[in-house]
Design a protein that fits this description.
The chain contains 8 helices and 12 strands. With 223 residues, it is α/β, with parallel strands linked by helices.
Length: 223
């Protein structure tokens, strides 16, 4: 699912929102100040959507919003905070895609996030720690950087990641990736797994992504 950037200084609100959204399958990166949020953003944390509180202790929320928009003009942003009409209009004029005044319902927050993600075309992505898979474009990113994968490597990765935790035999992977007419050795799967692990910086002795199941095959580790 999508990566959400939560910028909220109130520890109780932040923890409550983070736990709720993570239970719904979203990956949440929580920054407690404006400067911390901008530091993480410029260091490569690329969120699909930002939940931003205007009342931050070190910066005005709209200033953070402007900087994030400069970083990625297409980033959908959900701005939360003051409920007055003038404040809401000001936030929308500054580029917020939606506005939710405090106190707010967690279910309403989730509904608005999902609506924005659909509108921004971000729901077709999955995250496994530092690994991002764009299911529609069939592209992969590690630590925010695109991975240069061959068509076969990409197909193998996406087949494995389709069902995390499921063990795929070499025979199954050959049929799904190379096709049922392929007549080569099953060892070609092992060779491509090695290539994938190298590009994913995945240690087979302590895997983050692809695990060898002795005597059976391979499985992709869960989220």
């Amino acid at each position: 699912m999508a990566r959400i950037f939560l910028v909220e200084d109130d520890p109780q609100v932040g923890e409550l929102v983070k736990r709720f959204l993570e239970k719904e399958g979203l990956l949440v990166v929580w920054a407690r100040t404006g400067r911390e949020a901008l530091k993480q953003a410029w260091e490569g944390t690329k969120p699909d959507l930002v939940v931003l509180d205007r009342g931050l202790p070190d910066m005005e929320g709209l200033e953070v919003l402007r900087s994030l928009r400069d970083l990625d003009p297409l980033l959908p942003v959900l701005l939360t905070g003051r409920a007055e009409e003038d404040s809401r209009v000001e936030g929308l004029l500054e580029g917020a895609d939606d506005y939710l005044g405090k106190p707010f319902s967690l279910k309403e927050l989730l509904a608005r996030i999902k609506a924005l993600l659909r509108r921004g075309g971000k729901e077709g992505r999955r995250y496994f720690g530092p690994l991002e898979l764009d299911l529609e474009a069939r592209k992969a990113y590690l630590d925010g950087q695109p991975l240069k994968l061959s068509a076969t490597e990409a197909n193998l990765l996406f087949v494995l990641a389709q069902t995390p935790g499921r063990v795929y035999t070499r025979e199954e992977l050959l049929a799904r990736v190379w096709g049922p007419e392929f007549e080569g050795s099953e060892r070609v799967v092992d060779a491509y797994i090695r290539l994938l692990r190298k590009k994913l910086k995945d240690d087979p002795q302590a895997p983050r992504f692809i695990e060898t199941v002795v005597g059976m095959g391979y499985r992709f580790l869960g989220e």
